[in-house]
Amino acid sequence: xxxxxxxxxxxxxxxxxxxxxxxxxxxxxxxxxxxxxxxxxxxxxxxxxxxxxxxxxxxxxxxxxxxxxxxxxxxxxxxxxxxxxxxx
Amino acid sequence: xxxxxxxxxxxxxxxxxxxxxxxxxxxxxxxxxxxxxxxxxxxxxxxxxxxxxxxxxxxxxxxxxxxxxxxxxxxxxxxxxxxxxxxx
DNA sequence: CATGTCCGTGATACTAATACCGGTATAAGA
DNA sequence: TCTTATACCGGTATTAGTATCACGGACATG
Lengths: 88, 88
Prior knowledge:
Two copies of one chain form a homodimer. By secondary structure, the first copy, chain A, is mainly α. Chain A has a single domain (8-87), classed as 434 Repressor (Amino-terminal Domain) (Orthogonal Bundle). In chain A, 72% of the residues lie in helices and 0% in strands. In chain A, helix 2 (30-37) crosses helix 3 and helix 2 crosses helix 4. Chain A is globular, with a radius of gyration of 13 Å. The N and C termini of chain A lie far apart (29 Å). In chain A, 30% of the residues are buried. Chain A binds chain B through residues 10, 13, 54-61, 64-65, 70-72, 74-75, 78-79, and chain B through 10, 13, 54-61, 64-65, 70-72, 74-75, 78-79. Chain A binds a DNA duplex through helix 3. Chains A, B: Residues 21-74 form the HTH cro/C1-type domain. Chains A, B: InterPro entries: Cro/C1-type_HTH, Lambda_DNA-bd_dom_sf. Chains A, B: It holds the Pfam family HTH_31. Chains A, B: This is Helix-turn-helix domain-containing protein.
């Protein structure tokens, strides 16, 4: 095993992560946010739908900047959910 | 061209990013930090040396947590360097 | 009603991230 | 000197992120 396949937990985290981003996007369109972040709309869609559960750091950084989000808060939110999931 | 190859700017940013992480690591060993972050030492080394210029978000998040860094500060530092590079 | 546009989606192509292995260099210690 | 530990480096294998293409649905417009 040379590259650890994504665990179900990681995928679940990715879904929560995408849900957070989608919620933060609000009523803005995907393309608008994608353009603002400098990524393709398809990539944004994959991230939001959780099909890209572990996106690149700078992709998220650009996205967070476009959405006015804090990276620390994003990570914290996912970490908390992770802990909750582990605790549950 | 379906996936944009990393631009020299992105690679340079990756090197700066790695340098930041290395500086934050201080005198601690790679393996210690890697274990604390839950990643392999090789991956940490690649990130620090800039050979993995666009690491995954959660990889960086775990690393930042292990190093006691702020993701926003990290992103800001790289963004500033980016702007400076663009302005220069 | 037909058509064009926009948004979201699925499939596909290709590069990059991650992990493991072996080898090398350097410094510390026995 | 020899061993050990740390870090660096190259190669390899596999999975995953990202971008383009093509399609379907919704909506406005002619």
